[in-house]
Amino acid sequence: MSVYNTVQRRELMAFLEAHKQESFTVAEIEQGMINDPCVTIKPSQSTLYRLIRELVESGEVRRTVKGNSRKFVYQITGGEQCSHHLHMKCVDCGMVYHMNDEESREIVEKILSCDSFAVDSSTVLVGKCSKCR
Question: pTM for this structure?
Answer without folding.
Answer: 0.68
